């Protein structure tokens, strides 16, 4: 029997001893699982990793780094710039709509999104020329009306 005055006879320093069900170090890593130790991977095993390779824990066919296979992430900056420029300068609603359509299609259909981008700038250029022409005609008509009046 173990008591504070009589040390355990099994060689451990625990006052209650270590029986068959109690480990000697409660914080030690388990030596095997409930199914025993895993067998070491051999070179002939079809599931063994190549020498020096880091094991991959991704499912087969899963995207690498969150990107679908065959697709690169698309920067949407150009469509955002197009929308902002169209909204701030002369408020061109057609270019804004084309920019939003391109922004939403950029992830799924990049060629169509690029067409919306190109046509957005073409429409913006036409709108800008028409706006400048309208301002010139407005100022010319105001100037002509004010210069023809007599006192």
Automatic annotation (TrEMBL):
<feature type="region of interest" description="Disordered">
    <location>
        <begin position="1"/>
        <end position="61"/>
    </location>
</feature>
<protein>
    <recommendedName>
        <fullName>Interferon-induced transmembrane protein</fullName>
    </recommendedName>
</protein>
<keyword id="KW-1133">Transmembrane helix</keyword>
<feature type="compositionally biased region" description="Low complexity">
    <location>
        <begin position="11"/>
        <end position="57"/>
    </location>
</feature>
<keyword id="KW-0472">Membrane</keyword>
<feature type="transmembrane region" description="Helical">
    <location>
        <begin position="79"/>
        <end position="101"/>
    </location>
</feature>
<feature type="compositionally biased region" description="Polar residues">
    <location>
        <begin position="1"/>
        <end position="10"/>
    </location>
</feature>
<keyword id="KW-0812">Transmembrane</keyword>
<feature type="transmembrane region" description="Helical">
    <location>
        <begin position="121"/>
        <end position="145"/>
    </location>
</feature>
């Amino acid at each position: 029997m173990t008591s504070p005055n009589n040390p355990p006879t099994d060689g451990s320093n625990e006052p209650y001893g270590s029986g068959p069900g109690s480990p000697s170090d409660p914080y030690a890593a388990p030596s095997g699982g409930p199914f025993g130790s895993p067998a070491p991977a051999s070179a002939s095993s079809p599931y063994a990793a190549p020498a020096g390779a880091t094991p991959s824990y991704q499912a087969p066919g899963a995207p690498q780094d969150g990107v679908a296979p065959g697709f690169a992430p698309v920067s949407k900056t150009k469509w955002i710039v197009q929308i902002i420029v169209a909204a701030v300068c002369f408020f061109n609603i057609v270019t804004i709509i084309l920019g939003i359509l391109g922004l939403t299609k950029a992830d799924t259909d990049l060629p169509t999104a690029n067409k919306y981008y190109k046509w957005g700038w073409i429409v913006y250029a036409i709108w800008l020329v028409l706006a400048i022409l309208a301002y010139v005609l407005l100022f010319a008509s105001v100037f002509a009306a004010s210069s023809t009046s007599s006192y």
